[in-house]
């Protein structure tokens, strides 16, 4: 009974795995890496555990121009096309891998979990080279499972992949760009305004310094009131009442008469 349960579970798992292939959509990796999309290459997410039912069949990646996809037939997809035929066909097959070699778990953060399309510059396999994407434009890709020249199944086409446009280094101008006539006029006006502002600032400072200088001269040249001189025998009286109450007696003596006169 236990053996039958395991066999049933295996059959169900295989059926589910096989059913996943027609619904799988290839996509550019979402991992934070540099150069995931350039003018001649791109990086795809590696399919996870969907080709286990086809361990001995070859899984090919088809790279095609977006405009030729509606015309691609079952026969064309079933017969691997070399990258050298791209100029004629508008598509090619590359990266053949046995279905059993695709892992069932993403080794997160490692390069093996991604597929580099267009990375083989020297083409170690001339027949089906994973060379740089032949031309600029918009592409779409899909995986197909081939048994000889028979396509057993395949994934959906990816979303449109637009290659970056590279700039020829010889066309890049390294010398400083000359300002336009409009920019020259603006710079001249701003310079004139700055000069006027500077003149006004100098004039304001000069006038302010002159006012301070005149104020100091007036202050130092101000006439001082003469000081009140007071004899040693006289008193400064500010009020008559003060003189009455504060008057000191003055005693005089005559030479022959011994009498005192009080004044």
What structural keywords apply?
5 helices, 263 residues, signal, two-stranded antiparallel ribbon, five-stranded antiparallel beta sheet, disordered N terminus, alpha+beta, Immunoglobulin-like, membrane
Mind explaining what this structure looks like?
Keywords: Membrane, Signal, Transmembrane, Transmembrane helix. Residues 1-19 form the signal peptide. The chain crosses the membrane at residues 183-207. This protein is an alpha+beta fold and 263 residues long. It has a domain at 17-165: Immunoglobulin-like (Sandwich). The chain has helices at 2-20, 74-78, 86-89, 181-221, 240-246, and strands at residues 42-45, 58-65, 91-98, 114-117, 138-147, 150-154, 161-162, 251-253, 260-262. The strands form three sheets. Strands 2, 3, 5, 6 and 7 form a five-stranded antiparallel β-sheet that branches. A hairpin with a 6-residue loop joins strand 8 (251-253) and strand 9 (260-262). The N and C termini lie far apart (156 Å).
